[in-house]
Amino acid sequence: MIRFERVAKRYPNGREAISGVSFDVAGGEMVFLTGRSGAGKSTVLKLIALLERPTRGVVTVNGQSTGPLPARKIPAFRRGIGVVFQDHKLLADRPVFDNVALPLFVAGAPLREMDKRVRAALDQVGLLGKERLLPLELSIGEQQRVGIARAVITRPAVLIADEPTGNLDPELALEVMNVFRRFQEVGTTVMIATHDMHLVREFGKREIVLEGGHVRGVEDVQVPVVGAAAT
């Protein structure tokens, strides 16, 4: 589902964010991407979402090599990928419904379908009934779940998240991570970049470790710590 083959990314300022990165993520798998700040985690996610293109190597997502993909096909490619940001990136002056519906609005979906799918997405993240609230009327954890609902509204095969629990307390972080796991359990491929090693150990999923722009190793955690059960 996601494959990196000796991928490097050099930015215009000359900084090489990653070099020689190779890994595979199977369809329906949930993996953590870990490493210190500056290790290259965000760059890997940007390459997956085609926010950046590789300087060298091959990135394949959903069977599509991103390097040669023409610009006109990028919007369709991105509809197969849900992206969750640490800071939510919600529209503060628009209600929850409008925030979640945004990708469908951009895609020109019919209003009747939009209403049905927004409500389904909010139900999946436990926010059905809060469609008309503004983001600032929600808790931080609820705002993050709105971001997740928006990311999955197009029913993407791949869901990626960049430090989605970075601003949350441990209880809220666990709540949000359980939402991600529920999507993985129904077949979505999930990759989460995080520095929260407690959560990584607690969920017992495969870990891809970056260090200085290189893959330091891939670790499998077989037994999750008690307390990671989905809620």
Would you give an account of this structure?
By secondary structure, the protein is α/β, with parallel strands linked by helices. It folds into 2 domains: 155 residues, 3-Layer(aba) Sandwich (Rossmann fold), CATH 3.40.50.300; 67 residues, no CATH class. The protein contains 7 helices and 10 strands. The strands form 2 sheets. Strands 6-7-8-3-9-10 form a 6-stranded mixed β-sheet, with helices on both faces. Strands 2-1-4-5 form a 4-stranded antiparallel β-sheet, with helices on one face. Helix 3 crosses helix 4, helix 3 runs parallel beside helix 5 and helix 4 crosses helix 5. The longest helix has 16 residues. The radius of gyration is 17 Å and the shape is globular. The protein starts with a strand and ends in a 12-residue tail after the last strand. The C terminus is likely disordered.
Which characteristics define this entry?
Rossmann fold, alpha/beta, about 230 residues, disordered C terminus, four-stranded antiparallel sheet, six-stranded mixed sheet, 2 domains, globular
Count the strands?
Answer: 10
Please indicate the percent range of residues in DSSP E strands (runs of 2 or more): 25-35%
As a whole number of angstroms, the C-alpha radius of gyration is 17 Å
Indicate the CATH class of the largest domain: Alpha Beta
Tally of helical segments: 7
Helix content: 25-40%
- The helix-and-strand class reads alpha/beta
List the helices and strands and how they pair.
Blueprint: E1 2-10, E2 16-25, E3 30-34, H1 41-48, E4 56-61, E5 64-65, H2 74-78, E6 81-84, H3 96-106, H4 111-124, H5 140-152, E7 158-162, H6 170-185, E8 189-193, H7 197-203, E9 206-211, E10 214-219
Helix pairs in contact: 3-4, 3-5, 4-5, 5-6
